[in-house]
């Protein structure tokens, strides 16, 4: 289990131990080519049977024979190079760096920023890890199937040695943490630990700490300003989203992961086992305000993003299908911006179900929910849980040119057409 406590020492990457490919033809690369990578990794994707510790064998997909794939842990400012090789995944694969605002060509969306990587082919991703935080990567080809069956991994920029990384993933109804089932135990040095929780599933997950107060340190890779102590409440991790908690580790503590047998215990000895608290931390009012760095009142583009449902045909099949502003995929409008625009968007969900909305290449700040204005720390997000009958006002600066997917991260919903794009002119 030592692999669950991650310091620089055991991640197998970084300048000292990086496996740098000499002889990579930089003229073939789309990412930064002006220097050699600080961290380089080879990931080989396979369709195969692998083991879920605590549970047993599973048929799915692996990267370097494991699911989740190798953890990629880097320092801020490092140039990351990942060579993806597809050994035998017939549908083809890609890697998308969820939450990392990479240059568009590195975004890994099959059919948008690249072609899927076919069996026998390789593809090289290169990007600079500009912002510290908790991220993950996953295939973006037939992703509702490939991600669920294992083609994903963790990416953390600038962790400290006492951090605990916990990627929660459900394989065929088997919930795991870091690919393992049941009560998992990890040690962390020091008196507090930063627990980096990653929800790689299709639905939201409540997390909480049994028997101890905690703080929410970060949301989707952005630190919360002046977080306060939380007791007896859970915090929701949006599908695709990440939440970093600070937990005391002077005695053993248990992190509840949405109920069920899989939990994470930090420390030795007994950890109390509670039930999911009914109260939730509301990120709209959590922490302390601070300047956003731009003025949402000076919006140069204003969009609405109405999520609904209507009867129609999709892929020739009749049914109730998702709509965006009344249109059904692929006949959905794109959001067109220019570089430098201050963009405001109202996301309104009347579809009857919750949708975790994920915008690639950008982080957005939440201004209000159901007309109630944000009063806490700026709530920067890339994966926003929009419940049925909820309306969110968000804003962001269009500062990353390209074509960016903006879709529901309940991946079967995306496959059913809850997808549009943000496009720069
Ligand atoms: Cu995490 Cu478009 O995906
Ligand atoms: Cu959805």
TrEMBL record:
| Taxonomic path | Bacteria, Bacillati, Actinomycetota, Actinomycetes, Propionibacteriales
Residues forming the Plastocyanin-like domain are: 58-160, 322-423
The answer to whether keyword Metal-binding applies is: yes
Which GO molecular function entries does the Swiss-Prot or TrEMBL record give? copper ion binding; oxidoreductase activity
The membrane-spanning stretches of this chain are none
Organism from which the protein derives = Kribbella jejuensis
- SUPFAM superfamilies attached here? Cupredoxins
Which Pfam families does the protein's record reference?
A: Cu-oxidase_2 (PF07731), Cu-oxidase_3 (PF07732)
What keywords are annotated for this sequence in UniProt?
A: Metal-binding, Oxidoreductase
What CDD domains does the record tag this protein with?
Answer: CuRO_D2_2dMcoN_like (cd04202)
Q: Looking at the record's lineage, which domain of life comes first? A: Bacteria
Per its record, how is this protein called by name?
FtsP/CotA-like multicopper oxidase with cupredoxin domain
